[in-house]
Amino acid sequence: MLEVNEPAGTGMSIAEAARRTGVSVHTLRYYERAGLVVTTVDRTAGNRRRYRQLDLDWIKVCTRLRATGMPIRTIRRYAELVSAGRGNEKDRLELLESHRAEVLAKLAELQDNLELIDHKIDVYRGRLQAGTADLLWAPADHSDSAR
User: What does the pLDDT look like over 20-61, one tens digit per residue?
Assistant: First the structure.
Protein backbone atom coordinates (compact mmCIF):
# COMPACT_ATOMS: atom_id res chain seq x y z
CA MET A 1 0.00 0.00 0.00
CA LEU A 2 1.07 3.57 -0.56
CA GLU A 3 2.00 5.40 2.58
CA VAL A 4 1.02 9.02 2.95
CA ASN A 5 2.67 11.28 5.47
CA GLU A 6 -0.03 13.40 7.08
CA PRO A 7 -0.24 14.45 10.70
CA ALA A 8 -1.90 11.86 12.94
CA GLY A 9 -5.50 12.64 13.81
CA THR A 10 -6.20 14.48 10.58
CA GLY A 11 -8.78 13.35 8.12
CA MET A 12 -12.49 12.74 8.32
CA SER A 13 -14.84 10.16 9.71
CA ILE A 14 -16.29 7.38 7.62
CA ALA A 15 -19.68 9.13 7.68
CA GLU A 16 -18.14 12.33 6.30
CA ALA A 17 -16.16 10.36 3.72
CA ALA A 18 -19.36 8.61 2.62
CA ARG A 19 -21.14 11.95 2.29
CA ARG A 20 -18.31 13.48 0.27
CA THR A 21 -17.88 10.51 -2.08
CA GLY A 22 -21.58 9.78 -2.53
CA VAL A 23 -21.22 6.14 -1.51
CA SER A 24 -22.51 4.41 1.59
CA VAL A 25 -20.50 3.67 4.71
CA HIS A 26 -21.01 0.00 3.86
CA THR A 27 -19.48 0.54 0.40
CA LEU A 28 -16.46 2.31 1.90
CA ARG A 29 -15.85 -0.60 4.23
CA TYR A 30 -16.34 -3.06 1.37
CA TYR A 31 -13.87 -1.21 -0.88
CA GLU A 32 -11.30 -1.36 1.90
CA ARG A 33 -11.87 -5.08 2.59
CA ALA A 34 -11.85 -5.90 -1.14
CA GLY A 35 -8.42 -4.35 -1.57
CA LEU A 36 -9.60 -1.47 -3.73
CA VAL A 37 -8.16 1.35 -1.63
CA VAL A 38 -4.55 2.16 -2.54
CA THR A 39 -3.51 3.58 0.80
CA THR A 40 -3.83 2.31 4.33
CA VAL A 41 -6.79 4.15 5.81
CA ASP A 42 -5.67 5.80 9.04
CA ARG A 43 -7.24 4.83 12.36
CA THR A 44 -7.78 6.85 15.50
CA ALA A 45 -6.66 5.64 18.92
CA GLY A 46 -10.20 4.26 19.23
CA ASN A 47 -9.72 2.32 15.95
CA ARG A 48 -12.12 4.51 13.96
CA ARG A 49 -11.28 5.13 10.33
CA ARG A 50 -9.94 8.54 9.33
CA TYR A 51 -10.04 9.22 5.60
CA ARG A 52 -7.78 11.70 3.85
CA GLN A 53 -8.56 13.60 0.68
CA LEU A 54 -6.28 11.21 -1.22
CA ASP A 55 -8.49 8.30 -0.07
CA LEU A 56 -11.62 10.11 -1.21
CA ASP A 57 -10.12 10.95 -4.58
CA TRP A 58 -9.21 7.29 -5.11
CA ILE A 59 -12.66 6.08 -4.00
CA LYS A 60 -14.20 8.41 -6.57
CA VAL A 61 -11.98 6.81 -9.23
CA CYS A 62 -13.19 3.38 -8.12
CA THR A 63 -16.85 4.39 -8.23
CA ARG A 64 -16.43 5.89 -11.70
CA LEU A 65 -14.74 2.71 -12.95
CA ARG A 66 -17.56 0.61 -11.43
CA ALA A 67 -20.13 2.89 -13.06
CA THR A 68 -18.59 2.03 -16.43
CA GLY A 69 -18.93 -1.66 -15.71
CA MET A 70 -15.38 -2.47 -14.67
CA PRO A 71 -15.45 -5.63 -12.56
CA ILE A 72 -14.26 -5.45 -8.95
CA ARG A 73 -11.42 -7.88 -9.73
CA THR A 74 -10.13 -5.51 -12.44
CA ILE A 75 -10.38 -2.49 -10.16
CA ARG A 76 -8.50 -4.52 -7.54
CA ARG A 77 -5.78 -5.30 -10.09
CA TYR A 78 -5.54 -1.63 -11.01
CA ALA A 79 -5.33 -0.68 -7.32
CA GLU A 80 -2.58 -3.28 -6.81
CA LEU A 81 -0.60 -1.80 -9.68
CA VAL A 82 -1.01 1.74 -8.35
CA SER A 83 -0.10 0.62 -4.83
CA ALA A 84 3.04 -1.10 -6.12
CA GLY A 85 4.33 2.27 -7.29
CA ARG A 86 6.47 3.11 -10.28
CA GLY A 87 7.54 0.66 -12.92
CA ASN A 88 4.21 -0.83 -13.99
CA GLU A 89 2.75 2.10 -15.91
CA LYS A 90 2.51 0.04 -19.12
CA ASP A 91 0.39 -2.54 -17.28
CA ARG A 92 -1.88 0.21 -15.95
CA LEU A 93 -2.21 1.69 -19.42
CA GLU A 94 -3.07 -1.68 -20.96
CA LEU A 95 -5.71 -2.30 -18.30
CA LEU A 96 -7.31 1.09 -18.88
CA GLU A 97 -7.14 0.84 -22.68
CA SER A 98 -8.78 -2.58 -22.57
CA HIS A 99 -11.58 -1.26 -20.39
CA ARG A 100 -11.98 1.79 -22.61
CA ALA A 101 -12.52 -0.49 -25.62
CA GLU A 102 -15.21 -2.36 -23.67
CA VAL A 103 -16.92 0.90 -22.69
CA LEU A 104 -16.86 2.12 -26.31
CA ALA A 105 -18.46 -1.14 -27.45
CA LYS A 106 -21.18 -0.75 -24.82
CA LEU A 107 -21.75 2.84 -25.89
CA ALA A 108 -22.13 1.76 -29.52
CA GLU A 109 -24.65 -0.89 -28.49
CA LEU A 110 -26.56 1.67 -26.41
CA GLN A 111 -26.55 4.07 -29.36
CA ASP A 112 -28.08 1.37 -31.59
CA ASN A 113 -30.71 0.68 -28.96
CA LEU A 114 -31.45 4.38 -28.60
CA GLU A 115 -31.96 4.64 -32.35
CA LEU A 116 -34.58 1.88 -32.17
CA ILE A 117 -36.34 3.68 -29.32
CA ASP A 118 -36.27 6.96 -31.28
CA HIS A 119 -37.77 5.16 -34.29
CA LYS A 120 -40.56 3.71 -32.15
CA ILE A 121 -41.27 7.16 -30.67
CA ASP A 122 -41.47 8.64 -34.17
CA VAL A 123 -43.90 5.90 -35.24
CA TYR A 124 -46.15 6.47 -32.22
CA ARG A 125 -46.08 10.26 -32.58
CA GLY A 126 -46.85 10.01 -36.27
CA ARG A 127 -49.73 7.60 -35.71
CA LEU A 128 -51.18 9.69 -32.89
CA GLN A 129 -50.98 12.88 -34.96
CA ALA A 130 -52.53 11.14 -37.97
CA GLY A 131 -55.28 9.65 -35.83
CA THR A 132 -54.29 6.11 -36.77
CA ALA A 133 -52.86 4.97 -33.46
CA ASP A 134 -55.60 2.38 -33.15
CA LEU A 135 -54.01 0.60 -36.13
CA LEU A 136 -50.76 -0.05 -34.27
CA TRP A 137 -49.74 -3.65 -33.85
CA ALA A 138 -51.05 -5.49 -30.81
CA PRO A 139 -50.16 -9.07 -29.74
CA ALA A 140 -53.43 -10.40 -31.22
CA ASP A 141 -52.83 -8.60 -34.54
CA HIS A 142 -49.65 -9.59 -36.41
CA SER A 143 -50.45 -7.77 -39.65
CA ASP A 144 -49.21 -4.23 -38.88
CA SER A 145 -45.55 -3.33 -39.49
CA ALA A 146 -45.35 -0.65 -36.74
CA ARG A 147 -44.38 -3.20 -34.13
Answer: 999 999 999 999 999 999 988 999 999 999 999 999 999 999
Distances (CA, A) of 126 to 18, 62, 117: 48, 44, 14
118 vs 108, 111, 127, CA distance in Å?
A: 15, 10, 14
Partners of residue 51 on adjacent β-strands: 12
Q: How far is it, in rounded angstroms, from Cα 22 to Cα 61?
A: 12
133/101 Cα distance (integer angstroms): 41
Neighbours of 79 (CB within 10 A): 23
**Angle separating helix axes 89-130 and 72-84, nearest 10 degrees:** 150
